[in-house]
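Following up on my earlier thread - several people asked me to post the actual chain instead of describing it. Fair enough. Here it is, all 184 residues.
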Amino acid sequence: PTPNSRAAAPGIAHAVFTRLRSRNALAMAGQAEKKQAKKAESFSQYYLYAVIAVNVFYFVFRVVMYWSSMGKWNLCGAVLFSFVSHFTYNAIQNSLEVGCDYEFYLDLYLVNLVTQFLVVFSDWGWLLYLTVPGYGFFKIGKMVVDYVFTPTADELAENDPEAKKRMEKKQQKAERQKFKVMKH
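Reply from S.P.:
Thanks for posting it. Predicted structure:
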């Protein structure tokens, strides 16, 4: 055997092993995608059934049976319920298909469905929708408070005793002579 053929053998073995490993990884990734698709489909069905149930309940009891109490604002509310249900359901379904986090959409979806359910019994059910801007103000307020009250690196260094010792050592080192005195 020549020296070049010995060096080529491990390279070929490595290439073959890498290719087999990548095929196995692709097969495993395919299984994960199948599980994710199955989960997305089953969860989407649950969310769809919930929307259908609440909408049927709302339209039968609020719109059909108590049409006399439906004013202009209640009709606008029915349109809002339909729009938010459609938007959040599609966002949740797309997030499930891709495998992304859909927590925010789910929260909005649930607030919308519960509000729609409560409005059937009383117009005071609309107050639950105030949790949405309330949550937004909370998050914005938290960002502002974190920005204002988070100490900077300089402020942390001022209060840290170890950092003070390092600064004192640095100053003492800077004050020392920077040249060597040589005797003749």
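The chain has a mean pLDDT of 78. That should answer part of your original question.
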